[in-house]
Amino acid sequence: MVVIGLTNTTKSGIIKHFVKTLKGKILIADDVEHVRRLLAEFLSLHGYEVYMVRDGKEATEALEKDRSFSLIITDSGMPNMDGIDLVIHIRNLGINVPIIGMSCENKENEFRRAGADHFLLKPFHLDTLQSILRMILNEQPLI
User: Fold this and answer.
1) β-strand 24-29 against 48-53: which pairing, if any?
2) What radius of gyration do the chain's Cα atoms show?
3) Is the Cβ–Cβ distance between 126 and 42 less than 8 Å?
């Protein structure tokens, strides 16, 4: 966040306000860098703290260190541990965080059976993700 032309005290207050208004922390697991970055940018612009990983193994490592995620978004086809196995692993750990599975193939049934709450078929519009976020996180419409 860049704040120009303000005193340090005012800047500090703005930054503290910004941090207080974060809506939650989201974990994104996808092996495709541009997908991770697109989702991270979209979610960051709407007040979410975003943590990105490349596969299910990295996601489980992130969850071992920090279980305060408000939402997990995972792709299906990733190396080391795919998204469906990740969802099963998360549910077996007793973590009850909302999970959105996504894939370029229709794997909604597989994700749902594993314990995912929602599914996105790639490619998808960001307004579809926005609608799911509102449902899951009880958010007001994103502007």
Assistant:
1) parallel
2) 16
3) yes
